[in-house]
Structure formats: structure tokens, C-alpha cells
Amino acid sequence: MEEAGGSCPKPTKRSIIARPGFGSSGHPIPLLSNHFKVSVNVTDVVFYQYSVSITAEDNRVVDEKRKIIDRLCQTYSCELAGKSFAYDGEKTLYSLVRLPQSWMEFTVVPKESIAKRQSRWLPLRQTFFHDDPKNFTDVGGGITGVRGYHSSFRTTQGGLSLNMDVTMTMFLTPGPVIDFLKANQNVQDPCCIDWVKAKSMLKNLRVKPRHRNKEYKIIGLSQKVCKEQYFSMKVRSHDCANGEPQVVKITVYEYFTKHCGIELTDSACLPCLDVGNTKQPIYLPIELCTLVPLQRYAKALFPTLRASLVASSRQNPQDRKRTVIDAVRNYRCDDDSLLSASGVSIERQMMQVDSRVLETPTLRVGNKEDVFPRNGRWNFNYKTLFKTTCIDRWAVVNFSAPCYTDKIFHDLISCGRRMGIQIESPRTPIWEDPKSRGDKPLDRVENMFEMLNRAKLLKDTQFILCVLPEKKSDIYGPWKKKCLCDFGIVTQCIYPSTINDRYLTNVLLKINSKLGGINSLLAIEDSMKIPLIKDTPTMILGMGVSLGFPGRSDIPSVAAVVGSLYWPHISRYRASVRAQSPKEEMIDALYNPLANGKDDGMMRKLLEDFCHTSNGNKPKHIIVFRNGVAESQFSKVLNVEVEQILKAYQDHFKSEVDIPKFTVIVAQKDRHTKLFQDISPENVPSGTVVDTEIVHPRNYDFYLCAHASMTGTSRPAHYHILLDEIGFSPDELQNLIHALSYVNQRSTTAIRTVAPLRYANLADRWGSL
């Protein structure tokens, strides 16, 4: 029997809404998309799905599962009745016919990895790469960018489509292991290699020694160098009467030079590669080993290498279009036996899409002057900013950059005054000790802070201008972390290669925002005319999670939320950042009740500050922009994260009846859907929106290219509207999102989160607010 009085009602389960209609604003423009229409001519085809589990006898992780399945098909062809099937590389297998039994178990002995392949393919989930030098681009650091192709079937309003795109992924440069380590650590002499880093880098990589036509996997390094590393070897002694082999101790160096007759010139004083197992090591001299091709590099790139990869992957839109069309025609995916038997055929031309170009928002700067962006671009040269700050307590540090620091800050002061920013002369500039130039980046930063402390420049300083010695310097990360996390000091880094008015203007836009200024507003925002926002107190949230560096599972995830202030304005925000469990993609502390009954969640202060800056109004509408979650997590966004926001709201305002209406939008960086003009060599116009043909057949989504970008680098953001209790029309919502992407563009990343396209490195910059 249930006790009288009852318990609290269960929260309402929210469902993803269906598309209410289509937008019509803007002028139409015909485009092409890298989706290819798929037809299925056999209507009664039946697919059988099977779950696959692959385990090793010693419970180790099984690599190259596709090879295991291929080997199974060869070994047990009769048991499988000669049936062919498709395997996704993980846990699922499909067949057009029923297998002899619904549950089958096989024992497979993998072949030795014999290195006889002249040409090889590497499938990575929905992407495949071909070992062809034409697809290689040297990135540096022992890393090669390899061009491949992404392919996936998608259900769209236009029917089933094949999405084919060019992609670039990092692989280790094949060749001698010692050459790779020198390039990766940027040293000339093998004696200078950091072997602790080398051990971490080499683990699980595959190598082929030149004396054997076989591939091995590296599990580690020898504890001693080659000439001192002993192992046990059985030898037959002529002096032994019974001819039984004796066990002797011999060094790796002696074994290869005397017993194998291999000359070793560089390995004597270097560690050996261990390619055995934990019970039985197998040592190979490092100079005998080469890295085999197509081994993916999954660690974080240095900034300079990342920039090199981006530059090498850039492609003119028409070149990319031709490359994709040629791939579909040449690889003839529908010639696959399973697809052919299913009656699947793929068109060889890109799908045409009806798109629209939205009207570009007008910006308002100082002195009530309007700025009209053209082609998604605008500048603030000789413009007075909307709200400026006064800078009278600032410092300059120089990390051995060859420049005239005095001229830089004099030019900065002059440029700032033209923009309405009153800047006084800085405190005494601090130059790095020349002896520190060869030190590690972290040590250089620590030394600089010691100098700042001795000069008493860390107290009561508004911000520090940091002059870096090179673009994409390794000092940047440690310097930012030290300033923002340890001291809470706003900092701006510059690289003085080409100092001019345009460069200084961009620098000052960032400085002004970081110090609380406002560079510009939307004109409709300044005149209080934003539809559905001007009449009802509305709070805008931007939310996302940074999962740390690739290849590192021990680094906490960082959740960040920003909330708008000063309703009915939408250009000022407060940030809330919190660490959580590694690889946790959902935000788990939006509402966090403590034992004393108080809420310590991320939303509490955001709600409090919204009311404080909005004349005491509490938000009755909340627009949530959620960045970067997959479709499989949409339900969690609605029923976990939104529910936490609601609980924080009810706890803060002590009300369970008067609850706000939500509009929830997920922004995805769709890496593989591209839009093209038919013959133009330029990107599609900024403001291009697509909500037909290639969108979801039922759900409410659309693609938007809000801004201009370098030719060959643009891609649309994919917006999914999960919930719309506020009741925006498709046109209102598309134009609002387009306008938000122009809000305070040269501000901190935390502010730009509201335009989810610009969400990146939020956790690194939160302190600048």
C-alpha cells in the first residue's frame, strides 16, 4: 500500500520534436551537396543481423578484428555454407541469407603478419585510406597527413544517400624507427633522444626488421642498451657428451653481430625494441627496424604541426568536388556483391539542394554607428567600439622575441585611442634572461613569473601583454595556464612578425572584451527588437565539454557553461567551468545539492547574476545551445541536462509551479557534409541555410554556414532542434542562430560559445571573463 501524502512526481520524459515546417526567408540559391542518391530496386530483400564477440585466449585486447573475420571466412567456409556478409569492424555482422545456425562459435588462429603487401588499405570506421604516395603530405615531426575518403549511408528527406567526402588523418611516417624518433623529438643526434618519451610514443606500434619478412608489435624498450642487454640462448656444445643444448647468456649486440652476421653501426649504446610479451621479451636492435605504413597517430599535435596539417588538407571547393565525384565513380561502391544482391545502386552525380542565403545582421559600434558585414566579413579599423575600458595598469613581457617592444606598445596605445580605448603607458617591460632560451617552456614561464614577482608587477595588474618568439610557440599553453589558473591575470599573446594597424586592431578587440568591454552589439539588440526575446525575460546558455587530449584517458573532462546577462541584451555572458570524470561527455554538475541543502551546481551563480543584471527579472524563457553531442546522446541532453537546469531553477527561485519554457538546440560540426556552388571557385555565401533534401526525414534540423572562411575550409554547422516550448517559427530560429554567430565575435571563446560554431578551448580561457 502506498503511504498517504505520496512522493514527488517523477520528471516528465521529454521527446525529440518533429519538424514543424520549413524556412522561407532569404534569397534562394541552388547548390550541390556531397550526398549521392541511393536507390533500392529490390523491395523484398531481408537482412539478417548477428552480434559478434571476439576474445583472445589470454584476454588481451584484440586488434585488427576485420582480419580475424576474414581469416574465419577462409578457415570455415564450409561451415558457413560459403555465405558472404558485411562486418562493421566491431560487434555487428550482416548477411542476406540466414546462417546455418543462430549461434556459432569458432576458434581462429591468426596468420603471422607477413609483410608481402605492395599496396594496402586501412579502414577506420567509416573512413578508408590507401597506401599510395600520391595521398601523402609531410606534416613534420615524423607525422604524415594521409588523404582518404569518408563514406556513410544516411537517411534524408530525399531518401537514402551516400555521403562521400575527402578527409585527412595523421599517420606515422613509415621508415627507420630511429629517424622517426629524431624527427618527432626534433633532435639531430640519437644520443639526445628522450627515451622515456620514446617508450610512450613507440608502444603498440608495428615494425618490420630488415632481417626478417615479418611484422612485430612494440611492447616497450629494453632496460639496458644493446651491448649490455643480456638474454638466454640455447647452444649446442661440441664438448658435451650427450649433445644436449646448453643455456648461455649473451648480449643482444653480440647475438646479431656474431651469430646473425649483421653489422650494427648505431645500436650499441641505444636501447633495444622489445617485441615479445611480458613473459618472454624479444629484443631487436633499433637500427634494424622500420615502421610499417598506415599506422594512425592518435596523440595531440604540437600547434605548428596542427597548422601544417590544416594547410595541407585545404582544397579549392571545385577541386574537392571533382575529387569526391571521381571517388564515387572509381570505387563503384555499389559493385559490392552484397549491395548488388540487395538491388542497391548509387548515382554518380551530387545531389542538388535548394538553399537560401539569410540577410546579414547589422552590427552597432560606438557613437551609434552601424557596420554592415559583407560576404560574412567586417573589420573595426577606425571604428570606435561600443563600450571601451580604461587600461592604466598593465605590463609587457618578452620571451626573447627579436623586436622593439617599446614601438609595439606605443603603436598599441595609439591604435587603442583611435578605437576609444584609453591606454596609459605600461609598467617596466620585462625581458627574458637570454640564458633561459634553451630551457623547457614550463621552466621559461616559471622564470618569467619570478622576474615579474621581483619587479612587483603581479599585484594590481589589469593584464599582461606577452610577446612570443614565434608563431604557435610552445610557451603559449604553460603561459596561459599560469596566468589564468594560478594568478587570475588576463593576458594577451602576440607574435610580432607583421605588426600593423589591422593586427593591432584585432589584438585590441580581444583585450577590450577580456577586460569587460563590448566591441559591438547587434543593431536589433541595441534597439530592443529581437523577436520573442524583447518581450519576455530570456536567458541564453551555451554548454559543452572538453574531453582533454587525444590518446590521454587520465585527464579530467572539463564542463563549461556560459549564461547571458543584462536582458534584453544578448552580448554579455558569465562563465562557469568545472572538472569532471575523464571522457565524461555529459555535464554532471549543473545542479548539485549538498548535504546542507544548498545547491553548489554550475547553474546557481548564472541564474543569480542574470536576475541581478536584468532588473530582478527571472528568466521565463531559456534557450540552450549544446555543443558537440552525438545523436545517441540527444535524449540525455533533454532528460538529464535540461532536467538539472530545471531543478537548479526551482531550487534557486523556490518555485515548483512557475517554470520556464525551454528551446534546446544541439550544434554539431558536421565534418563530412559539404556544400558547393556549381561552377564558382568560392565557398558558398555566408548565411547559407539548407533545411530540405539532405536533412533528417522526420526530426527538426538544418545546416547553416554563418560566416565566411578561407577558401576550401568552410563546412556547415548542423543544428538539431530537440525541443521548442518557446514556439519559434523556422525562420525566426534560423535568423536568431545566424545573428548570434555575429555576437561579439572578437571576444573570448566563452562568449562565442553561444554561437556553437566558434566553440573551442573554452576551459583554457574561462578566467579571462
From TrEMBL:
GO annotation, cellular component aspect: ribonucleoprotein complex
Family in the record: Belongs to the argonaute family. Ago subfamily.
Signal peptide positions (record): none
GO biological process, alphabetically ordered: defense response to virus
Protein name: Piwi domain-containing protein
Record carries keyword Disulfide bond: no
Domain PAZ residue range list: 176-293
GO molecular function: RNA binding
CDD domains according to UniProt: PAZ_argonaute_like
A Pfam entry, by short name: ArgoN
Matches recorded under InterPro entries: ArgoL1, Argonaute_N, PAZ_dom, PAZ_dom_sf, Piwi, RNaseH-like_sf, RNaseH_sf
Span of domain Piwi: 463-763
Keywords of the record: Repressor, Ribonucleoprotein
Gene source species: Hevea brasiliensis (Para rubber tree)
